[in-house]
Amino acid sequence: MQIQVVKSKIHRVSVTGADLNYIGSITIDEALMEASNIIEGEKVSIVNINNGERLETYAIKGNRNSGDITLNGPAARKVQKGDIIIIISYGILDFEEAKTFKPAIIFPNEKDNSLT
Predict the structure, then answer these.
(1) Which residues form the active site (predicted)?
(2) Does residue 58 have an active-site annotation?
């Protein structure tokens, strides 16, 4: 049997932008993607702490160490600049493997989305 488990999580980052006219996705600072083991094009869930909205989209790389967290396309209607969000990705593992799997969870600084 296989189950879906949390693979990666960027816990509590500030939205730096919302671009309704972009094709879609979430732009994430490349350093945050690397630290959380999220790759470009990967499906992610977004949870907005400020308004309770939940959505799914895919990740694209932002400039490294920029702190960039921008919701693009229709997802831009679900956030405002300054909102605090959680970004989560999931993986499918065999049941026994899932028991010992450790996800990559990071806790950036909410003020500037840095890793320090």
Answers:
(1) 25, 58
(2) yes
Q: Does the predicted model carry a pTM greater than 0.90?
A: yes
Q: Which of 14, 22, 45, 58 is catalytic?
A: 58
74 is in an annotated binding site: yes
Residue 29, domain extent: 2-106
pLDDT over 70 percentage in the chain: 100
Looking at the domain assignment, is residue 115 inside a domain? no
Which of the following is catalytic: 25, 36, 66, 89? 25
User: Tokens 């992610």 correspond to what residue?
Assistant: 44
Q: Using DSSP, state whether 43 is helix, strand or coil.
A: strand
**Does 76 count as an annotated binding residue?**
no
Of 99, 100, 98, 82, the closest CA to residue 90 belongs to: 98
Look up the CATH number of the domain holding residue 14. Answer: 2.40.40.20
22 is catalytic: no
Question: Does residue 61 sit within a domain?
Answer: yes
Q: How many domains does the chain have?
A: 1
- Is 91 one of the annotated binding-site residues? no
C-alpha 74 chain-centroid distance: 16
